[in-house]
């Protein structure tokens, strides 16, 4: 305190007594304040409070022990046995083990262990029955699935056969209808062929006359073409003469140009004329060559035309002979067409009756096909339901196998 500090603690005072004191320095007054009491006086009241607390605590402990004993007795009576044993039993049942036998007190029927024992017996019986029923359901579902699969396979085969029959009937119906149409068309055509044959014979006679006239015209044209070829040969001879004259004129013009060049200035005009003459002679020679080439082509064409006309004249004679043969064939065709007309009429009537019958059969097959399709769908649904039932039975059996009974 003389150092200007404050504090409290247990210490010895000036008289050498153990005291509990508190001191504080007052700098404004320059004083120091000290409060002291002996250790015995300070701790006497604390000891009294402590003993009272100890008594109360002991009383609380005794009451708690009594309550705990009552609670334990009530719990044991409710559990029906030791809590650890009850926990083991509950754990064993929770794990699916229903094989054990519970140790119960004599006359105990309301405790937790007694209820667990009854529940264990009930579960054991129910799980046994469920296991038996699940096996029966699984076997029945498997058998049902097999039957459905066999039925579905049979229905699929039947459906395939029905589809094949329907397709065959469709084709047959189309064929019969086509036969009916073709037969009727044939009958109509046959009815007109006889008249056409008569008309054809008359036209053949006209054709023979026209071909003979054409043969005469071709022969006259061949004569004219032959004369044209001879005239072109004479023209070719004249062109050769003109070509020779042009070559000589070209030589003369060349010589004249040379002489004009020698004459100098006085022969310049003559040189120009000589050049023009030479150019004209050259163009005449070129034109003569082109005309000669054209004449040669004309001669070749005339020769080919003459050969073609001779061939056409021969072909016309052959055609006249063949037309005579064709006229005889038309006579035979007309007779055959009359017979065909009668037979096609009979075939057309029979084809119409067969078409009506085929359409009716086709409609019945389509009805059967629709019913078969519905049956296949129903069997497929039944198969799926059987498979689902088998899966559920197997899952139920797996759940039952988790318990040991």
TrEMBL record:
Source domain of life: Bacteria
Residue span, Methyl-accepting transducer domain: 133-369
GO MF assignments: transmembrane signaling receptor activity
Coiled coil: 116-150
Record membrane topology: Multi-pass membrane protein
Subcellular location, principal: membrane
Subcellular location: Membrane
A Pfam family matched in the record: MCPsignal
Alphabetized InterPro entries for the sequence: Chemotax_Me-accpt_rcpt, MCPsignal_dom
One biological process term in Gene Ontology: signal transduction
GO cellular component: membrane
SMART domains: MA
Keyword Nucleotidyltransferase: no
Protein keywords: Coiled coil, Membrane, Transducer, Transmembrane, Transmembrane helix
Residues spanning the membrane: 49-72
Family membership: Belongs to the methyl-accepting chemotaxis (MCP) protein family.
Name of protein: Methyl-accepting chemotaxis protein
Organism of derivation: Halopseudomonas yangmingensis
